Amino acid sequence: MNTIFAEGSIEITDCMGATFHRDISSDIFRGLTSPWKFIPSKYFYDAKGSRLFEHICDLPEYYQTRTELSILRNNASSIMRGFDRGCLIELGSGANWKISALLDAAMRSGSADISYMPIDVSESAIFKASRDLTQRYPCLKVTGMIADFTRHMDAIPAGRDRLFLFFGSTIGNFDENERSVLLKNVAGRMSPGDRFLVGIDMIKDARILERAYNDSQGVTAKFNKNILNVINRELNADFNTSDFDHVAFFNKEKEHVEMHLRANRAISAFISVLALNVEVQEGETIHTEICKKFSRESAEAMAHEAGLTIGRWFSDPEEWFSLIELSLNSGPFGPKTVKEVL
């Protein structure tokens, strides 16, 4: 872990510099030589992908961001109450809208000694978030980490009271085993008194879900296809994004939305760094993302399996989206789940 930037109240460390190309090479080789081809969704978020996702968050069909943000704004004071000298640790930081809701509440209560640790694979996202937030909150100390939170949790230092944050239903982008491993890794870094606030998208009408991933402006399609541009740049490949169509649908049996890139003709692409020729038949898909949708029961089971307890449950009136506040099973909130609705 190397410090790559230190200026004023901002310090940024890089946990990925020595391993990123090894990791992406291994991940892409494994995914594109699998019988059912896939690309890990974490590679969506280069600078262009992050900008496209911010655009997605503003689309009328994409209810998740505005709903989660309304929940945060209406409950921020409750969430931040008593958190006077704590550290906010955000996994997959992205844009600053949501963290700002919590920081605004903290500043209103006079909690000036709050620090923030954004963790993201995107160097540009970390730098932008750090600069924007310290301009808005001059007393805020930011210690950013360029890291893959699925691999670098042990780089998070122990310290004072901490609130771990995992917004946007990103937990739904992992399969059941991956979710369990991730939550257990976070739990392993938590101390009694720490909390973990997780956004989860709830099961609802399939038409609403599918519209959210098939917007009328085609932004999600551009976002999905951009993952091929990442592979082209990082691994010297020659994929043509026009050879693929964006596909997204709700799998009712598995209770998740699936995103794929479907070849609209037979193609052959070469990945120079891997010395790998990839053949994709017309109609064949490359799986790029899952987006798990939860019920109360499945969310509680997920938390319990990881050794965590849902202390508070924040939702919008329609219960389209929820924020669950987790603690260690022996933590201060006990085993009882309290539901809080706007």
Structural class: alpha/beta
Element order, helices and strands? Answer: EEHHHEHEHEEHEHHEEEEEHEEE
Residues in helices, as a percent range? 25-40%
Which stretches of 5+ consecutive residues score pLDDT under 50?
Answer: 331-342
Cα shape: globular
The biggest sheet amounts to: 10 strands, mixed
Mean pLDDT metric: 92
Helix count from the secondary structure assignment: 9
Strand order of the largest sheet: 1-2-5-4-3-6-7-14-13-15
The CATH superfamily of the domain at 2-17 and 55-205 and 295-341 is identified as Vaccinia Virus protein VP39
Beta-strand content bin: 25-35%
Kindly provide the radius of gyration, computed on alpha-carbon positions and rounded to a whole number of angstroms: 20 Å
CATH-defined architecture of the domain at 2-17 and 55-205 and 295-341: 3-Layer(aba) Sandwich
Q: Please give the oligomerization state of what you see.
A: single chain
What's the total number of strands?
15
Q: Fill in the CATH topology of the domain at 2-17 and 55-205 and 295-341.
A: Rossmann fold
